[in-house]
Write a structure and sequence with these properties.
Distance between the termini: 38 Å
Strand content: under 5%
Helix content: 55-70%
Radius of gyration: 15 Å
Order of helices and strands: HHH
Largest sheet: none
Number of strands: 0
Shape: elongated
Number of helices: 3
């Protein structure tokens, strides 16, 4: 059984993949922080606070 796509979920996906959108840039920043061992978010994303 597949999940039905809604207009809202399609808009969210489009925004996350659009380099001109702030959500796109924020998700890249968040991802890079979680992969940086020097950043506190790195440890929080691994359950080590």
């Amino acid at each position: 059984m597949s999940k039905k796509s809604t207009k809202q979920s399609n808009n969210q996906r489009s925004n996350d993949r659009n380099p001109n959108n702030t959500g796109y840039r924020q998700s890249l920043k968040n991802r890079s922080q979680q992969l940086n061992p020097e950043h506190p978010a790195y440890h929080r994303s691994r359950g080590k606070d």
